Amino acid sequence: MKHEIFTGSAPALITPFRNGVIDYDTLDLLLKRQIEGGSSAVVLAGTTGESAALEYDEHRQLLRHAATVIDGRIPLIAGAGSNSTLHARRLIEQAEDAGADALLLVTPYYNKTSQAGLIRHYTLLADHCSLPILLYHVPSRTGMTILPETLGILSQHPLIYGIKEAGTDFDAICRAMSLCAPDFSFYSGNDSLTLPMMALGAKGVISVAANLVPEAMQQLCAACLQGDYAAAGKLHRYWLGLMQVLFTDVNPIPVKSALHMLGLCSPELRLPLISMDSGKQEVLKVQLLRCGLL
User: Fold this and answer.
1) Quick one: DSSP state of residue 162?
2) How many angstroms separate the CA atoms of 221 and 200, rounded?
3) Residues 122, 136, 161, 187: which is the catalytic one?
4) Cα separations (Å) of 27 from 14, 18, 102?
5) Exposure of 93 in the CB half-sphere (CA atoms within 13 A)
6) Cβ atoms within 10 Å of 203's Cβ, excluding its own
7) Quick check: 133 and 105 in contact, CB under 8 A?
8) Rounded to an integer, what distance in angstroms lies between the CA atom of residue 289 and that of residue 242?
9) Is 164 a catalytic residue?
10) Could you check whether the bond before residue 252 is cis, i.e. omega within 30 degrees of 0?
11) Is 136 a catalytic residue?
């Protein structure tokens, strides 16, 4: 029987850059902050980590360095998905060699496939790896939908443990939950939908907001896991404005800007991502002040 890779909140961590290269000193501080803040796991080289802009060697070194810093204290989940099955296999091998504990595999994008193609893609990857897999469903970015029936089939694979669900069709999500294996785990991929997802049975969230407030996101998840939805609702309402403002521009532009305002990292991004304009930065700053973060 499969076990949960984690329960609670896991940040989709940014990749800090300085002068065009990964800033490992800042990465160390960010990882330490997450561990001390009670995060249940950490996701590296995902969308928020600008995975599409990382070179192969950077991907490998980023994961290897993080695994050393984390030293088994919480699970390290490595983004290793691609729209090329062969490319994904190479990224998976790097993650395995680096010491990751689990994988996050986004659906193919741009060269979108059929549902049968999705099953073949994920099954081949799962058949040739040694780590538990979380699928990543984010149709707003990929244009690719995993139908509930397809997810039900994939959930039967012994190494496909769960899904980061960043869709918003709750009818489809409920149907998928009813069709999937009972030991298959759902995680919210949208901060603002953490509470309703967990009310339906999700085990936690892979969170952008947790880059800023790891303790708060963990408290929200803990309240849901304990069935205390009055407390969870209060936390949700308090932090909702922050969750929303972090998506007023393309992720991870706002969260990197916010972390910079908090003095935690450089705002540097990799093209084609560019900094927020002054108006959006002011809106972000106002929300950080309202939340007591500045």
Assistant:
1) E
2) 13
3) 136
4) 9, 11, 19
5) 9
6) 20
7) yes
8) 10
9) yes
10) yes
11) yes
CB 95 within 8 A of CB 56: no
**Set 122, 161, 164, 187: catalytic member:** 164
Along the 294 residues of the chain, how does pLDDT read in single tens digits?
899 999 999 999 999 999 999 999 999 999 999 999 999 999 999 999 999 999 999 999 999 999 999 999 999 999 999 999 999 999 999 999 999 999 999 999 999 999 999 999 999 999 999 999 999 999 999 999 999 999 999 999 999 999 999 999 999 999 999 999 999 999 999 999 999 999 999 999 999 999 999 999 999 999 999 999 999 999 999 999 999 999 999 999 999 999 999 999 999 999 999 999 999 999 999 999 999 999
Closest CA to 33 of 4, 77, 74, 61: 74
**Which residues does 282 contact at the CB level (< 8 Å), separation at least 6?**
none
Question: H or E stretch including 69?
Answer: helix 56-70
Say what the pTM is.
0.96
Structure tokens at 226: 């304990």
List, in sequence order, every residue forming a beta bridge with 105; answer none if it has no partner.
135
Q: Let me know how long the chain is.
A: 294
167 vs 269: CA distance, rounded Å = 26
